[in-house]
Amino acid sequence: MGTDVIVVGAGVIGLSTAIRLAESGASVRVWAAEPPAETTSAVAAALWGPDFADPGRTWAYATQPELTRLAADPATGVRLCRGTQASDIQSEPPPWVDRLLDVRMLDPEELAPGMLVGLRTTAPIVDMPRYLDYLTARLDVEIELRRITSLTEPAAEAAVVVNCTGVGARELTGDEGLRPWWGQHVVVTNPGLDEFYIEAVLGHEWAGFFPHGDVVVLGGISRPDVWDRTPDPLVAEGIIARCSAIDARLADAPVVGHRVGLRPWRAKPRLEAEQVGAARVVHNYGHGGMGVSHSWGSADAVVALV
What range does the record give for the signal peptide (predicted)? Predict the structure, then answer.
């Protein structure tokens, strides 16, 4: 066979995996139903952060130095940003607080209403449209736009197939444990913010904003089992209201766009290999809203399986 590996999917997980495979010496092709700019990855805010449990926590730890290195080059869309993280889930600092940079725990009077704990830190944030362009250029392989109905299609053309299809993996693999978690962001003109803010909450609505140059990406919301990617005006109003309660400058910031994506949620990400015909198929999907944070660590895990 002329192709060693076909990676299916061109979001952040697929592109990062394809890069790691290509840079390890494999001949790589990428098949995708959508170009990178139309994937859920392009909708992400996106802030690096670890999970509470493995394997995601290990993957996030492995991703952190890669994103930190990329932050030295403005063309990547990655930069180190100061900001605030708060939570209503528990009153103690997160178990991975020692992995964060320049941490200062917030005093109770500094917390937004309802938050039990908070900290200020410096972390990588990613302008996803620019970052996906960077990853595509770094891969230097033409992305072949083709929608498949079975993994037997790429398995007929390559010895190894890597399935990075996000929510599309539900239909391709019959994995009913994989569900879409609908999310929406509002993009506004930056009124002067240079720090991020994010809440980790028990509910499905929270405040989060991430400055990327001339714009700020506002969130957030999560709705399980919704497939329609149409923006909801009422959701947008709620997002703006929650974010404005944290920083009043956002209340009158002109809206320049709305972004909707389907987070590929699964109780545990799937990263494992199986045989399909003569090909070895490695699944790498189900990262929920942690795709950017898991990306390089899970890509390294795929290389180890291949």
Answer: none
Q: How large is the C-alpha radius of gyration of the chain?
A: 19
* CB atoms closer than 10 angstroms to residue 151: 22
Residue 109 has phi, psi (to 5 degrees) of: -70, -10
The response to whether 263 counts as a known ligand-binding position is yes
**Segment holding 273, helix H or strand E:** strand 270-276
Binding site annotation covers 47?
yes
Per mean pLDDT, which range of 44-48, 117-121, 123-127 is the poorest?
44-48
For the segment 73-78, the average pLDDT, to the nearest whole number, is 97
Residue of 258, 293, 243 lying closest to 51 (CA atoms): 293
Establish whether 152 is an annotated binding residue.
no
264: left (phi over 0), alpha (psi -120 to 50) or beta: beta
Q: What is the mean pLDDT of residues 77-104?
A: 95
Lay out the sheet containing 279-285: strands in order across. Answer: 143-145, 28-32, 5-8, 160-163, 279-285, 270-276
Q: Is 189 annotated as a binding residue?
A: no
pLDDT at 103 over 80: yes
Residue 41 among known ligand-binding residues: yes
Residues 180, 31: Cα–Cα separation, whole Å: 21
H helix or E strand, kind and range, residue 66: helix 56-70
pLDDT band at residue 2, thresholds of 50, 70 and 90?
Answer: low
The rounded distance, in Å, linking the Cα atoms of 110 and 112 is 7
Q: Cα separation of 266 and 129, whole Å?
A: 25
> According to the model, what pLDDT value does residue 3 have?
74
Q: Which domains does the chain have, with CATH numbers?
A: 1-77+127-178+266-306 (3.40.50.720), 80-123+179-265 (3.30.9.10)
Helix (H, G, I), strand (E, B) or coil at 201: coil
Q: Contact 151/278 with Cβ under 8 angstroms?
A: no
pTM here? 0.96
**CB-based contact 142:265 (threshold 8 Å):** no
β-bridge mates for residue 101, sequence order: 122
